[in-house]
Amino acid sequence: MRQTFSNAVFLLCATASALQIPFLESLNPQNAVTTKKPLVSSEAIQADISSKALLKRAKELFKIAELGIDEYNHPTRVIGSKGHLATLDYIYSTLASLGDYYTITNQTFPAVVGNTFEYRLVLGDASPNSTQAMSLTPPTTDKEPVFGPLVLVANDGCAASDYPSNTTGAIALIQRGTCPFGTKSENAGKAGALAAVVYNTADGSLSGTLGTPSPHHVATFGISKADAAPYIAALKNGTIIESSAYIDAIVESIGTTNIIAQTTAGDASNCVMLGGHSDSVAEGPGINDDGSGSLTLLEIATQLTKYEVRNCVRFAWWAGEEEGLLGSDYYVSQLSAAENKKIRLFMDYDMLASPNYAYQVYNATNALNPVGSEELRDLYVDWYKKEGLNYTFIAFDGRSDYDGFIRHGIPGGGIATGAEGVKTRKEAEMFGGREGEWFDPCYHQLCDGVSNCDLEAWEVNARLVAHSVATYAVSFEGFPERRVGVEAGRVAETPLYHGSKLVM
Ligand code: DTR
Ligand code: ZN
Ligand code: ZN
């Protein structure tokens, strides 16, 4: 505390002399007003944002991700990895260096992590090209290959009665649909299967997660509909297809941590909250996803310390987003009704610098979300318009950390620059870039490094994040009061997604 205080005095003296305010006057307690920080303004804090500072942080984060190489053979910041632990250290120590401007809280919660080292599926004499191991799959017995006939499961494999008696000692082939992959794997295990293969009903390969582990889960793969078709036909003809399955994987329970920083100043009963996720997927370093969001928050948290705020500002760095929004869900679930009500809104910042970007605003309406979501949406829209920039609306469908908030009555929204969506011709005209390609061709891949971030888009969006913080840090005038219960607004019963992984 003492150290921080004397640094602050030193800085203010330096400012006073630069402005040629007589030195003694600046020290006179009656003129203490000269030592007060200015109230934050959108213009001032936007001017504090530079792509140079963001890039510097991105390079630091990549170095941190390289600590994951030991265990994963490539850079990663997936929860449980050294890359993620070092990310948490980096965020915490940066915040701690800001003195007492923030109250910092570490919130540790249980999470399940999986790592698949190797897998192989041979059906008859061939290996389907589209084969993928499901996330959080257990290994095959003793991490060794298992052998048995392929057996076709009836219907969707969601009921025990769908599994024929010869599933015991076999590899179960199950159609996607009706219930989660985890339920199918569990049912297969209960029926005595050695492994399970879920085939897609839509086009393309099938990559999903088994979700919460069950002792009945068996090693589970996903394959495409096209790859499955000849096997289904042969099985229906009574052909015996001797097969083998092999997965070397671990699934374990760990503790991981959300970091929350709240301004000590400002009305603590009226908080503007914003968050990004501190973790990446196992496959890569996650510098755009979500280094871009989480570093933007860190930079703004740093710049904000120059200013006074009227409302409290609460920053969050969520862990386990990539495993299914674990950290944000946990955080919201732990809020008492009184604490919940203090959060006036939650702003989600996940992927702000996609290389083939579009300026995307979540289309969060008050008709389908807690009241206030639409006012936030319009704040982003108005800013892009004022800047003379194009924007598009994207679905507010549960793919990031806002989901838990809106499900608990807290207005939410955010911006993004796109993931595995394909850029249309119209979007290429609006934003430049490459039509027909993903917004982020490195989404969830090893190549999501520093050069995967578009610095122009990043700086633009970081200024918009700064604008959002400054606006609500000064006033909630015109922003709807928090409502609770049914008053808060409707939320879709079953989200299309909960995070980025398919569950069924
Ligand atoms: N859940 C994010 C990616 C993400 C967030 N919103 C969207 C919308 C469309 C596609 C992807 C996303 C992640 O961390 O992967
Ligand atoms: Zn992701
Ligand atoms: Zn993300």
From TrEMBL:
Question: Which InterPro entries is this protein grouped with?
Answer: M28_fam, PA_dom_sf, PA_domain, Peptidase_M28
In this chain the PA domain maps to 146-229
Enzyme class, top EC level, equals hydrolase
- MF-aspect GO terms: aminopeptidase activity; metal ion binding; metalloexopeptidase activity
Q: Spell out the subcellular localization from the entry.
A: Secreted
Q: What residue intervals traverse the membrane?
A: none
Keywords, alphabetical: Aminopeptidase, Hydrolase, Metal-binding, Protease, Secreted, Signal, Zinc
Q: Where is the Peptidase M28 domain?
A: 258-467
Q: What is its EC number?
A: 3.4.-.-
Signal peptide range equals 1-18
Q: Which GO CC annotations does the UniProt entry carry?
A: extracellular region
CDD domains from the UniProt entry? PA_ScAPY_like
Please give the superkingdom of this protein's source. Eukaryota
Output the GO biological process annotations, alphabetical, semicolon-separated: proteolysis
Q: Which cofactor does it need?
A: Zn(2+)
As for family, the record states: Belongs to the peptidase M28 family.
Give the record's subunit note.
Monomer.
Q: What name appears for this protein in its UniProt entry? A: Peptide hydrolase
UniProt source species: Lophium mytilinum
